[in-house]
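Service request form, structural biology core

Requester: graduate student, group of Dr. S.
Request type: structure prediction, single chain
Budget code: on file
Notes: please return the result as structure tokens.

Sequence provided:
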Amino acid sequence: MVHRRRVSAHEYEYDEKSIVVTEAKSYAAGVPAVLVSLQRGVEQMGPGRTAYSLAKLNQRKGFDCPGCAWPETPGHRKHAEFCENGAKAVAEEATRRTVGPDFFATHSIDDLLGRTEYWLGQQGRITHPMVLRPGATHYEEIDWDSAERMIADELRQLATPEQAIFYTSGRTSNEAAFLYQLLIRSFGTNNMPDCSNMCHESSGSALSASIGIGKGSVSVPDIENADLILIAGQNPGTNHPRMLSTLEKAKSNGARVIAINPLVEAGLRRFKDPQKVGGVVGDGVAIADEYLQIRLGGDMALFQGLGKMFVDADDEAPGTVIDRAFVETYTAGFDDWIDHIRGVDMDVVLEATGLSMREIRDTAEALVHSEKTIVCWAMGLTQQTHGVATIEEAVNLLLLRGMIGKPGAGVCPVRGHSNVQGDRTMGIWEKMPESFLAALDDEFGIHSPRDHGLDAVDSIRAMRDGRGTFFMGMGGNFVSATPDTAVTEAALRNCSLTVQVSTKLNRSHLVHGRSALILPSLGRTDRDVQASGKQFVTVEDSMSMVHASRGGLRPSSAFMRSEVSIVCGIAEKLFGPGHSVPWGSFRDDYDRIRDSISRVVPGFEDFNRKVRQKEGFGLPHPPRDSRTFHTSTGKANFAVNELTWLPVPEGRLMLQTMRSHDQYNTTIYGLDDRYRGVKGGRRVVFVHPDDIASMGFVDGEVVDLVSEWQLPDGTVAERRADRFRIVAYSTPRGNAAAYYPETNPLIPLDHVARKSNTPVSKAVVVRLERRRHG
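Core staff response, request fulfilled:
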């Protein structure tokens, strides 16, 4: 029997004036993490379902966490191989609450548009396919066959396949992603925006140019055995909590950790492992040995300043700092780089970073004395205008010391959603190489288009300008994940048909084309049974390990379908029975999908056998495996970049958007940010106390945020986000922080990173404006 608890609106409405702010925590996890995990699980799933689900989470015979992409440690796994936010993600997906036709009959689109993102998500799992007809005020039930025909008819009547845009969330399995891109390319377009476009596209661009592959080069054992770990622009305590256990192991092995982050974050200060006595009754483990509170956008300046110190030190004692043998054998561009770096002005570095000379010098000495160095980073680096160049500069430092292709050393871009890297490997990219497209064509007898397609930002532009008229989202919440909310919403409303494949209700269902479909899909926790029996899917974690994921819970509704089944059903209607791709066979037995993947995607040979191994299998990584670099020069490339940083205009602040501890990407789990001391709401802006005073405000005052963006003609365009409570917080002067998606309206669509086109969400010029009314 399905439990249909209806959550009333008043339970989740909140007012920024009622937010309670207490002192920020000095540690992450501990007993509170356990209690919150159990509380959320029981509230959403009930005791029995909670016990079953958490016991299967990240286990070899269980299912992969629907949260982050942090890998499991090889070998023995703990009975509780999950973190607090992983438990929240499972509770959200395995909830007994449901959203069916009766819900949509009760709530109009206008009614739902007035609800918070949190309230929408708390209503439960979507149980039936739903359609919104032109001019209708409510979604109504539709059968699967009619929904599939509606999509196929819409696609066939487009003037060109380039009018269709197909988005992918990072939670889509390898099998579903492979079939999705196969459908899209069979249709005739490469328009495949995905969530990578908005997070680690800068990492892929930088690493591909520098070392020849856009993936990290390290494993969990590498991190555990490193001498020095730099963590830049990343908050593992909230965004990748299981990483803290790996860092704890590294610390016990003697590693030194340097945190580089504008905000002081609990997880970078101290970790209390709730599965150890010391994490329950003791003080836990200090994570960061040094904490560099760098100014927003100052990381590139820091890395160039460190490079200059390397060169100066090597000049004083030739051969003692720079690994000349590695540089001469495996790299290109060193002479141009060293000529550039000698000219770096350390006074500019100090101004750009806000750090002291002692802090920078101590960091340089730590790098010089380390024999095994790893640099980890996330959105704090990638979502900058100069994000690609910043990552290239971090790689330069590693190349100087020969830290690529060496155990315990390398690059570690920490990915977000659990299969965001796998989706790209499976072909979800608007610019897949010829080798992939040729193999795909040979396998299936199709002709894939070769022209590059649209990424996320360019897709919004296309829909805005009427060049994109069909939008399909395979999971995710496109409206709330993208920048410039008003522009994005208007763009989607330009479409003739919008289709959302979803597990739960979100704002993207309410911002729709003239017609709209919601297709309810199975999640990671759900049992997937097809004609050949029970199925499993696979995922690739942040460190290129591929493993199986097996859901075990009975789905909330018989009308839900797997993402694989949804793709195959649409393809059968679109292409007809004579198509060269065996869509029906793929739906019936996922092993057949994996057999095709094994012949198309390098590294997946003998896929079905290897993925059934105890630990799954690792994908090849030429720089790590053999110091082979598939770049334009055939070597690892030093990058030369003009130093770029972000001076803050007088009377303004540089804003970064970020997650609270009670959310994952656009999914809001709750209204508390325990680690930062915020309870009962999300509309807060964290500002240095001296900035608050100098601007004439007081801590606790409610203000509007106004972003300022200079247009090509020199005029300044403004965007607003109203009603944010000021919270005094430890952050560099001139910097501020606030949660997304509430602050997404402030980010101009054209404010993007050079080369990667990633929205720049970590460097938005804003002013605080006193409320005129209330």
